[in-house]
């Protein structure tokens, strides 16, 4: 079983994306052998009121709840964030919180954001922090010119010790190395995907060594990226208990 | 991996590197060659460029000596490309001769020292045309400020030089190298002597389909540029015909460069 921690549905304003509806992404993932996928709304990133995107997502995946696990995108600097988050978890049955400080113009260490992360932790909800969506070097002139700040991640891990984080779509091996030096990640609360980590130069093995096999999850960034590069890594990864990486770790994290 | 296993695979873009002592980085070389064998590649075309500054003739000669050392270690798996800094015109021309004639290299690699359309590069281009060898040039259309590599060539630089030298063979490096690949495809579309390698860590869904649509598979070359899983995965995932994939993995137009010069 493969569980994908990082997929999206919705309209990307800067490039035409295929497989970006629930129906087409469902078929695409199924064709590639992905059994379950955490999904969030691209629209929620760009709407001023992210909640409109969360509700859209919830509606769209209604017929596909057997494959999609929705994550709520919340902007903690926008009015009503607390009510919206609770609604997403309790009423829309979303399983994760996803944050985009580099699109919504706040810092992870801002008071509201810390409060949101602590609230999520109290509700046993993990916090997904994608490092980016597309590679910043090809960015549209209206797109953000920032990626996730790893310094802020380090600070927020220290400030919110019990929170569980998933860091995806970044240079996970160097991020894990940095976080290992600056904040304790060995308590098992920080998970990493390997979407931008090469296996053939051993970087993926370095990541596993630093973060532990119990903290590696599969993320494809579909439909923005081909899924096959990640499947190639799984195919060539010579390691025991690979099922943890394929899906067992995220399954345990999400209690599914 | 049946696509790779059942077809000839020529990797037109990868590298060897120097270690901290300025010698051949053996461990990285071994990993690259092992990766190539493990993924059913038949040949790696490799170079050792200097990634910034204004390398002197002694520096680029040293790079080529190291590349030659690597190709001698793995003669069946690796062929070299000569790295030169075209600003040193005479030395570059002499070095190309040395690398082609003495080392058996099969092309040249230019990096970000000059835009490929800069007049200073013309002598080097004319030399390559005379020798009938391809030019692989580091390239990207970077939309991110500040521009850290101001003399990196983009598709428009290639277009200028391709129009000026229609008999030249120009390889625009790594469409997955992190720049605006859609812009690049449009910029080079009309110039049949600009080829494109598919290497790079960016594996955006659709990148191979669009490249094939704009240029055709006959103008595409497989490469990795150290990103094996991304480059292999792009080929596996692309929704193009099997024949197009086979063509990209071993571009027939480039087969002659792999044959010894005297036997062409």
Keywords for this entry:
heterodimer; A: 256 residues; alpha/beta; TIM Barrel; seven-stranded parallel beta sheet; 7 strands; 41% helix; 13% strand; B: 264 residues; six-stranded parallel beta sheet; three-stranded parallel beta sheet
How would you sum up this structure, described in words?
- The complex is a heterodimer of chains A (256) and B (264).
- Chain A is an alpha/beta fold.
- Chain A has one domain (3-254): Metal-dependent hydrolases (TIM Barrel, Alpha-Beta Barrel), CATH 3.20.20.
- Helices cover 41% and strands 13% of the residues of chain A.
- Chain A has a seven-stranded parallel β-sheet with strand order 1-2-3-4-5-6-7.
- In chain A, β3 (68-73), α4 and β4 (96-98) form a beta-alpha-beta unit.
- In chain A, α7 (150-159) crosses α8.
- Chain A is globular, with a radius of gyration of 17 Å.
- Chain B is an alpha/beta fold.
- Chain B has helices at 2-5, 26-38, 57-73, 89-102, 122-131, 155-164, 181-188, 207-215, 228-237, 242-249, 255-258; strands spanning 10-15, 43-47, 78-80, 82-83, 108-110, 135-137, 170-172, 194-197, 220-221.
- In chain B, the strands form two sheets. A six-stranded parallel β-sheet of chain B has the order 4-5-6-7-8-9. A three-stranded parallel β-sheet of chain B has the order 1-2-3, covered by helices on one side.
- In chain B, β6, α6 and β7 form a beta-alpha-beta unit.
- The model of chain B has no long low-confidence stretch (mean pLDDT 96).
- Classes of the chains: A alpha/beta (256), B alpha/beta (264).
Give the topology.
The complex is a heterodimer of chains A (256) and B (264).
Chain A: E1 3-9, H1 22-31, E2 36-41, H2 42-46, H3 50-60, E3 68-73, H4 81-90, E4 96-98, H5 101-104, H6 111-122, E5 127-130, H7 150-159, E6 165-168, H8 172-182, E7 190-192, H9 203-211, H10 228-236, H11 242-254
Chain B: H1 2-5, E1 10-15, H2 26-38, E2 43-47, H3 57-73, E3 78-80, E4 82-83, H4 89-102, E5 108-110, H5 122-131, E6 135-137, H6 155-164, E7 170-172, H7 181-188, E8 194-197, H8 207-215, E9 220-221, H9 228-237, H10 242-249, H11 255-258
Parallel strand pairs in B: 1-2, 2-3, 4-5, 5-6, 6-7, 7-8, 8-9
Helix pairs in contact in B: 3-4, 4-5, 6-7, 7-8
């Amino acid at each position: 079983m493969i569980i994908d921690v990082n997929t999206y549905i919705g309209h990307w304003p800067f490039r035409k994306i295929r497989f970006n509806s629930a129906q087409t992404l469902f078929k695409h993932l199924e064709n590639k052998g992905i059994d379950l996928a955490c999904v969030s709304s691209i629209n929620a990133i760009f709407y001023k009121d992210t909640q409109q995107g969360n509700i859209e997502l919830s509606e769209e995946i209604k017929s596909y709840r057997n494959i999609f696990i929705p994550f709520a995108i919340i902007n903690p600097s926008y009015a009503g964030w607390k009510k919206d988050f609770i609604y997403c978890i309790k009423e829309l049955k979303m399983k994760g919180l996803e944050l985009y400080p580099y699109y919504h113009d706040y810092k992870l260490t801002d008071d509201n954001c810390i409060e949101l992360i602590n609230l999520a932790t109290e509700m046993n909800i993990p916090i997904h922090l994608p490092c980016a969506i597309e590679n910043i070097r090809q960015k549209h002139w209206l797109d953000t010119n920032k990626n996730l700040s790893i310094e802020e991640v380090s600070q927020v891990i220290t400030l919110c010790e019990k929170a569980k984080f998933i860091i995806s779509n970044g240079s996970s091996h160097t991020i894990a190395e940095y976080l290992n030096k600056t904040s304790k990640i060995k308590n098992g609360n920080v998970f990493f995907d390997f979407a931008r980590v090469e296996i053939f130069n051993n970087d993926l093995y370095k990541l596993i060594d630093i973060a532990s096999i119990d903290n590696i999850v599969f993320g494809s960034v579909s439909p923005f990226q081909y899924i096959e590069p990640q499947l190639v890594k799984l195919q060539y990864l010579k390691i025991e208990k690979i099922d943890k990486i394929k899906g067992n770790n995220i399954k345990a994290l999400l209690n599914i | 991996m049946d696509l790779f296993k059942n077809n000839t695979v020529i990797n037109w873009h990868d590298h060897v590197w120097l270690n901290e002592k300025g010698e051949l980085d053996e461990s990285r070389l071994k990993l690259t060659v092992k990766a190539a064998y493990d993924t059913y590649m038949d040949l790696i075309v490799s170079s050792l460029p200097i990634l910034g500054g204004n390398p002197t003739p002694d520096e680029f000669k040293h790079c080529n000596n190291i590349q030659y050392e690597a190709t001698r270690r793995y003669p069946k798996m690796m062929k070299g490309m000569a790295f030169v800094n075209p600003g040193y015109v005479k030395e570059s021309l002499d070095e190309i001769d040395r690398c082609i004639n003495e080392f058996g290299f099969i092309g040249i690699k230019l990096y970000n020292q000059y835009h490929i359309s800069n007049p200073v590069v013309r002598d080097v281009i004319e030399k390559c045309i005379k020798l009938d060898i391809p030019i692989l040039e580091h390239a990207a259309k970077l939309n991110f400020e500040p521009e850290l590599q101001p003399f990196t060539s983009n598709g428009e630089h290639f277009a200028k030089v391709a129009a000026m030298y229609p008999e030249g063979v120009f390889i625009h490096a790594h469409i997955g190298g992190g720049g605006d690949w859609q812009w690049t495809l449009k910029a080079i579309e009309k110039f049949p002597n600009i080829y494109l390698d598919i290497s790079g860590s960016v594996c955006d869904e659709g990148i191979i389909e669009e490249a094939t649509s704009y240029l055709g598979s006959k103008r595409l070359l497989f490469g990795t540029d150290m990103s094996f899983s991304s480059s292999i995965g792009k080929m596996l995932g692309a929704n193009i015909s099997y024949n197009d994939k086979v063509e990209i993995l071993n571009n027939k137009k480039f087969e002659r460069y792999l044959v010894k010069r005297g036997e062409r």
